[in-house]
Write a structure and sequence with these properties.
- This protein is α/β, with parallel strands linked by helices and 403 residues long.
- It has 2 domains: 247 residues, Aspartate Aminotransferase, domain 2, CATH 3.40.640; 138 residues, Alpha-Beta Complex (Aspartate Aminotransferase, domain 1).
- The chain is 39% helix and 14% strand.
- The chain is built from 13 helices and 14 strands.
- Strands 1-9-8-5-4-2-3 form a 7-stranded mixed sheet, with helices on both faces.
């Protein structure tokens, strides 16, 4: 009888007891709105911002309603206007081009390497041909490109960088936290990210003018003085008259849930990476299957894993994912012709116009993606890797019989 995995790929860990107690306290006193605080009280959202700034080493941090809002807010703060071209990865998820579309700008997609990072040669060429002045860089599924080389390209061309760190909260490049290279770093606290408030997000920056604009944009009204991890009040004087309120604040309830999770994040990262390496080791050297090599200068958070079936035909991959599903292993295929659930690709975002990325197409054709929730045990990870390995081998066996 074939081995079957019986766990859930969407079941997250419970909120820590400290977070539940803090959330109950907020609900009991009723001051959920971040600016509704008692005399002398900082408020959960303001305290979380200070703690997140400390965690990333940023001068300023802002807690917002979602990672997608964070990216759109960053683009607005940078002055992106309708019709402007904004560069971004060809391999990413829908909220990234969605943030560009939210300011009525035009996405310009950049090719993807076999290691799932942005193609720096193609980036340089598209900067030259598009005249874009902003790059919304997606660290998709936690794969970090050579950030030193990327920033050299962008700085020399006058391109400002916004980092989408939805999958890299807690990751680093050569010792620098993800999100700390560009003008803004944007993070998500959606349920499947590294800390969980259902929805939520952050922006970080060292630029006082940009962060003042972001705080006003997020809906501070004239209550920006109630932030802690923010620029001094005089910075707001130059921006408060010309910056619109496009409300997307985080509330004190979600902030209360997140604060204890942030203190545990380093331990959680270690636990994710043990699971990641267990699955990766189980898949490595499987005939017909390629694991994704990572640059050793990047420290990752293994909350998901990707691999490729580079020689398999579309029908074979459909059959492979279906067989894995019958054995309890849920996989996403980025080469599917139609978007499914959370998974889509650049040619399904038709509002961005017709763009062709042949190298990205080749990479995505055989690209498989799988979540690794911390509710999995190490033995669960071994079972999952055995199932995937067996079904990947079955592709070659079927092809051999057909031949």
């Amino acid at each position: 009888m074939k081995e079957v995995f019986e766990g859930s790929f969407t079941q997250q860990e419970p909120i820590p007891e400290e977070g539940i107690a803090a959330a109950l306290e907020v609900m009991q006193h009723g001051r959920l709105h971040r600016y509704n605080v008692a005399e002398g009280e900082a408020g959960e959202a303001a305290l979380l911002e200070q703690e997140f700034a400390d965690f990333t080493g940023a001068s300023y941090a802002l807690a917002v309603a979602s990672g997608g809002y964070a990216m759109g807010c960053a683009l607005r703060a940078l002055g992106v206007r309708p019709g402007d071209k904004v560069l971004s990865n060809g391999f990413t998820l829908a909220p990234v081009p969605g943030a560009i579309a939210s300011v009525n700008a035009e996405p310009v997609f950049v090719e993807t390497t076999e290691n799932l990072t942005i193609d720096l040669g193609d980036l340089a060429e598209r900067i030259r041909t598009s005249q874009a002045e902003v790059l919304l860089l997606s660290h998709m599924r936690g794969h970090l490109c050579d950030m030193d080389a990327l920033m050299q390209i962008c700085d020399s061309s006058g391109v400002r960088v916004v980092e989408d760190c939805a999958h890299t909260m807690g990751a680093t490049w050569d010792g620098t936290p993800s999100g700390r290279h560009g003008a803004f770093g944007c993070y998500s606290c959606q349920t499947y990210k590294h800390i969980n408030s259902g929805e939520g997000g952050f922006l970080v920056s060292d630029d006082p003018d940009l962060m003042a604009r972001a705080i006003i944009l997020s809906g501070s009204y004239m209550l920006f003085g109630r932030h802690i991890a923010s620029p001094p009040p005089e910075i707001f004087e130059s921006v408060k008259w010309e910056t619109p309120n496009i409300s997307g604040r985080m509330d004190n309830l979600r902030a209360a849930i997140l604060r204890p999770q942030l203190t545990r994040l380093q331990a959680q990262i270690s636990a994710w990476n043990v699971r990641y390496r267990t699955v990766e080791d189980g898949l490595r050297n499987t005939p017909g299957l390629t694991v994704i090599d990572r640059d050793p200068r990047g420290a990752y958070v293994g909350s998901s894993i990707q691999f490729r079936l580079p020689q398999a035909a579309a029908g074979e991959i459909e059959d492979f994912t279906a067989r894995c599903a019958t054995r309890g292993v849920e996989l996403k295929w980025f080469g599917a012709p139609e978007p499914r659930a959370f998974t889509s690709r650049y040619d399904s975002w038709r509002y961005a116009g017709t763009q062709r990325l042949p190298r990205t197409d080749r990479v995505l054709h055989g690209l498989i993606d799988m979540r690794l929730p911390l509710t999995f045990s190490i033995e669960d990870c071994r079972v999952i890797s055995r199932i995937i390995r067996e079904e990947a081998r079955a592709i070659l066996d079927t092809a051999a019989c057909a031949g």
